[in-house]
Design brief:
mainly alpha; 76% helix
């Protein structure tokens, strides 16, 4: 796809690069969401209050890594940030599935933080920040 090739070329049309970043993010988030859907049938419930601390600390660490990736120069920084946003969604989604039904809000929190990283990546690329 032409938009995905434009992601690696900093001199490419900015609109085409943003479209490629959105497509890349969409594929990552849908793929991770599909795996979470399958895991929802396989993962046992394992509620423990300490898992909330682990989930929040891990989620904050992934979000911080995404922000640090955006500070780096180069055409791959937005791709890394979107990938870390998808990883954040997956990590908090798995933690939420383990602690269901009380912990399912973690899945939504991970989606929100992941999409926020996607919007920041698009802004870093020179876009309006509409997200992946």
């Amino acid at each position: 796809m032409e938009a995905l090739k434009a992601l690696l070329d900093p001199r490419a049309d900015p609109a085409l690069r943003r479209r490629g970043l959105r497509f890349y993010g969409l594929v990552l988030f849908l793929g991770k969401g599909g795996v979470l859907l399958l895991l929802s049938f396989l993962l046992p419930r394992a509620f423990h209050p300490a898992l909330y601390l682990l989930a929040f600390l891990g989620g904050l660490w992934l979000y911080r890594q995404g922000e640090e990736a955006l500070k780096e120069e180069g055409p791959l920084a937005p791709l890394v940030a979107v990938g870390l946003g998808a990883a954040l969604f997956f990590f908090l989604g798995v933690m939420g599935l383990l602690m269901r039904p009380q912990g399912l809000f973690l899945l939504l929190l991970g989606l929100g933080w992941g999409l926020a990283l996607g919007r920041r990546a698009e802004r870093a690329m020179g876009g309006r920040g509409a997200g992946p």
